[in-house]
Amino acid sequence: MSAAPISVATLATMKARGERITCLTCYDASFARLLEAAGVDVLLVGDSLGMVLQGHGSTVPVTLEHMAYHSACVARGRRRALLIADFPFLVGVTPERALVGAARLMQEGGAQVVKIEGGASVLETVRCLTTQGVPVCGHMGLMPQSVNLIGGYRFQGRDADSAETIRRDALAIAEAGASLLVLECVPAALAQEISRALTIPVIGIGAGAGCDGQVLVIYDILGLNPGQPPRFSRDFMKDSGSILEAVTGYVTAVREGSFPGPTETTY
Hints:
Elements: H1 8-17, E1 21-25, H2 29-37, E2 42-45, H3 49-52, H4 64-77, E3 82-86, H5 95-107, E4 113-117, H6 123-131, E5 136-141, H7 147-150, H8 160-175, E6 180-184, H9 188-197, E7 202-205, E8 213-216, H10 218-221, H11 243-256
Parallel strand pairs: 1-2, 1-8, 2-3, 3-4, 4-5, 5-6, 6-7, 7-8
């Protein structure tokens, strides 16, 4: 692997070459160094920290201050991997709020890309951010910040109408200037179709092996989920002798296409 820092342009080149992109959530400097040593391409400072670090039942309580703090911690440990930070709940609801949030995450938190949940409702925000030089990663399908509206963590896009909405909004997000897109908990066939239709990389989580890359929560792949782990995840720690070996196993499995497998995929 090249020692050159990874950028959004690097990921676009990887997609064009058919090279799968590896991504894991990361919340501190120590894990940032370890994940880079294992060859992870993208470190995502996810608002999932609200659940796995803070003990909340959802990501909604996470604030911009929390995200900037943890992003800064990761930034101090990374050297090569691309650093993406989530917009927390409602920060991307208007272009004005999003610009303030992006400034904090990038200036204070060292983020290189900001991730925003939503489809048609955030198009104006995506356009505004990219016009001002802020790289954006979209997030569609299951959107954890909307858990109170949709009534739980449920797979999306199972029926024709919702699948068409996701498909249409994914194209619109890319046209608005997003550099990446995360698809969470959608049928594998839909995710593969969208991945092939878009020129930007599509990173899947619970979306099958047909995406351009995969992302998981680091705690899940290390078997540290105290409840029922997501059915689309895999405990890479179970047969490993160290955390580094487990993360390396994840990277290898994604790159060779053996993760996600049939039992971790919804069709």
